[in-house]
């Protein structure tokens, strides 16, 4: 083939073949935003509402797999989760060639792993972590596990909004296995689901996957997401200032990423509460502290009060003992 | 507790305490009751003014500066009144008064319900 076509021409043809044929839909292709394991994401114009949205569609050649069904399942799961920390789905349908697609809000931001260098402060990073926890706790409350939480699946918008993305691996709690279906269908535990996401007999991303996920166990629960959140916390703590990381916060991270699910936080809310307590200068449940550590934390927390009252007392004492004559 | 009430309570408590410290100045012990009452009233007035300011302006530095200014101003007004011997106690009254104002300014900015919450 290369005898007649240049490499660049072949590349252009390949790109054209990958581009979805949006004829018959209300969307007009603008450009490609990215490629995931399950499909591509494109920037399109919604001609009816005159706005840009993101369109996700499975890649050509994957139509024979169960991914078309999964893509729609992903759309349905996200549609159930109306939360400021979860990208809203606008529409779902099928292209002229039969491939299913769905559209969602176009997030103009950066992935957390790309954005993190611009946030040096520990407290700012922890506030982002709290927002991630909020979205995941909301999903858990609606019976949905994410199962692929990692910095690359979190977007930080230009106004500081934090959005948990890529729910392609999500699972409804109570279903036997596989991505969230709403019908409790059994799904094979062997998929490629995104860049950096493991191939083979496990769901998730190495380094962020709970040990039970790595072992390919099918009965994972909320605590698998808690492990991943602990790994995300570890990522956020790296290079944060101040350094070293306070012991209480390290204990929070350790408990979230305990190898045995029984040793982890029982819920995302409790993990988020511990992080909130740390930010407020309160005791965290993961770190039992002695009386000295408790006293020091109280002093640090109330240092402004203590300094002002000390200044008053010292002034009073000076005026009493060194009274101007 | 709203910010104005917090300022009032804090100003009153610190005012009483501030007045009681006059006991350490033998020359004015005879006028202790009047000093404690005057100091308390000064604290209450400063507390209300600083607390009201905190309801209107949400800024820790401005709150502290305003507290210091009000504390010093009210303390000056008191210190400007001489004792029966004609002696003025500017240092003894204005220095602690300024710090008390600063403490109230800090406290009302950091704590207490803001105006819109308190109104609910």
Describe the structure in your own words.
The complex is a heterodimer of chains A (325) and B (120). Chain A is an alpha+beta fold and 325 residues long. Chain A folds into three domains: 18-105, Phosphorylase Kinase, domain 1 (2-Layer Sandwich); 110-279, Transferase(Phosphotransferase) domain 1 (Transferase(Phosphotransferase), domain 1); 291-321. Helices cover 38% and strands 15% of the residues of chain A. In chain A, the strands form three sheets. Chain A has a five-stranded antiparallel β-sheet, covered by helices on one side. Chain A has a three-stranded antiparallel β-sheet with strand order 6-8-9. Chain B is mostly helical and 120 residues long. Chain B has one domain (3-114). Helix content of chain B is 73%, strand content 0%. Chain B has five helices and no strands. In chain B, helix 1 (3-20) packs antiparallel against helix 2 (32-56), helix 2 runs parallel beside helix 4 and helix 3 (60-79) packs antiparallel against helix 4 (90-110). The longest helix of chain B is centred in the middle third of the chain and has 25 residues, at 32-56. The two termini of chain B are 12 Å apart. Classes of the chains: A alpha+beta (325), B mainly alpha (120). The interface between A and B is medium-sized, with 12 and 15 residues.
């Amino acid at each position: 083939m290369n005898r007649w076509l240049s490499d660049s021409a072949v590349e252009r043809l390949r790109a054209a073949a990958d581009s979805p044929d949006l004829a018959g839909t209300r969307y007009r292709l603008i450009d490609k935003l990215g490629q995931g394991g399950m499909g591509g994401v494109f920037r399109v114009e919604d001609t009816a509402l005159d706005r840009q949205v993101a369109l996700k569609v499975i890649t050509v050649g994957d139509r024979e797999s169960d991914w078309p069904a999964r893509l729609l399942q992903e759309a349905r799961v996200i549609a159930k989760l109306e939360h400021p920390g979860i990208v809203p789905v606008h529409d779902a349908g099928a292209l002229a060639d039969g491939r299913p697609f769905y559209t969602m809000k176009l997030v103009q931001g950066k992935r957390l792993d790309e954005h993190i260098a611009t946030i040096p402060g520990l407290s700012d990073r922890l506030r982002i972590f709290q927002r991630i926890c909020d979205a995941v706790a909301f999903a858990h409350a609606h019976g949905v596990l994410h199962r692929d939480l990692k910095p690359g699946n979190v977007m930080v918008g230009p106004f500081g909004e934090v959005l948990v993305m890529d729910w392609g691996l999500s699972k409804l709690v109570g279903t036997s296995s596989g991505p969230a279906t709403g019908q409790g269908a059994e799904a094979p535990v062997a998929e490629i689901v995104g860049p950096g996401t493991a191939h083979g007999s496990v769901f998730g991303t190495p380094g962020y996957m709970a040990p039970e996920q790595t072992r390919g166990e099918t009965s994972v629960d909320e605590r698998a997401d808690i492990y991943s959140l602990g790994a995300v916390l570890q990522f956020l703590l790296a290079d944060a200032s101040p350094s070293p990381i306070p012991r209480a916060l390290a204990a929070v991270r350790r408990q979230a990423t305990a190898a045995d699910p029984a040793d982890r936080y029982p819920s995302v809310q409790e993990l988020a509460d511990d992080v909130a307590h740390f930010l407020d200068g309160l005791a965290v449940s993961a770190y039992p502290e002695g009386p000295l550590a408790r006293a020091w934390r109280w002093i640090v927390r109330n240092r402004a009060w203590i300094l002002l009252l000390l200044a008053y007392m010292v002034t009073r004492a000076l005026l009493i003992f060194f009274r101007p004559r | 507790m709203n910010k104005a009430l917090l300022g009032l309570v804090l100003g009153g408590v610190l005012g009483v305490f501030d007045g009681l410290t006059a006991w350490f100045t033998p020359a004015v012990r005879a006028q202790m009751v009047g000093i404690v009452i005057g100091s308390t009233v000064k604290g209450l007035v400063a507390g209300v003014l600083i607390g009201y300011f905190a309801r209107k302006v949400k800024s820790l530095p401005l709150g502290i500066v305003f507290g210091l200014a009000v504390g010093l101003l009210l303390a000056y007004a008191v210190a400007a009144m001489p004792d029966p011997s004609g002696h003025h106690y500017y240092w003894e009254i204005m220095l602690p008064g300024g710090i008390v104002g600063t403490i109230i300014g800090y406290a009302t900015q950091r704590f207490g319900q803001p105006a819109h919450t308190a109104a609910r």
